[in-house]
Amino acid sequence: MSLVIDSNLEYLQNILHISNVTFEEKYADMSVEDIIEAEAAAGNQYAIELAQELTSNTSLIMELFDLADTENKYMILRELTSQQLQVFLPEMEEKDLLQGLLFFTQDKLMKMLEELPPEQLVNTVFEMFSQEEIVKFMPDEQLNKFLTSSEIDKNKILKHMQSIPEEYVAQVLEQITGESHENMNSYDLSKKFGELNPLEYKDALMAFQPTQKQQLVLSLGKEHEEWFQLFDADAYTKIINREKQQPEVVKAMSVIEPEYIQNMIKELPNDLLSLVITQMDTEQFSEILMNEFPEVIADIIMK
Fold this sequence. Notes:
Shape: rod-shaped
Number of strands: 0
Number of helices: 23
Helix content: 55-70%
Order of helices and strands: HHHHHHHHHHHHHHHHHHHHHHH
Largest sheet: none
Distance between the termini: 11 Å
């Protein structure tokens, strides 16, 4: 590594109590380490104390190498490997990590959303759409998948089916059984529905018109939000991709647990990953640098 950071020489001059004339004549082109060594050898007590603190005093390193400057942070970070850069991510604030997601294309964001656990994906979707909108946008085959899922208790479906206008339930029963069920109330219709054999029952659910399916799915989903996880991930991302722009998607992703956001950010190339990390708190950045990468500190002190 050959890392050169512009040192805050004025700060160094002040803490070593060196006059302007002496500093300009003797130390203008010397490294931080050489200046401190020369002053310590000359008996400068401040230099002797400073030499002992260079690798342990976070505040000193922050000031001496102006690490609040994002350009200086970036120059350091670009020398690190991808694995080394990832050490900083768990200590970053969520808002700074989310900004990094803006470096990804919309298509890449969709792929990463699809790879999330269903709960994380659905929570993100809820930030962008109401339950009514989700059900409205879902294609018919997804509504069928939901209603015929083994995850949903049949009695639950029959209970919520009573919210569908009676004439529609009667029409479906007649279509499946060939028998008329006119003048029956919603309770009796749902009971008849439940008496169908498994294959007829499944066919009957799928025979409802999309509007009735949406009504039934929404009614069930409102009682059990976790059932929204029954929809396929790519069905969600197709809706998101069609209805939302990248900044809206990234904003909604704020509800995703940090560990998953960190895994996404790790997919950035090193130069962009370094840019993201420059936004982290300077003191935390400096502490990680000193604790995890002392060789980097040593390198910039020598230059």
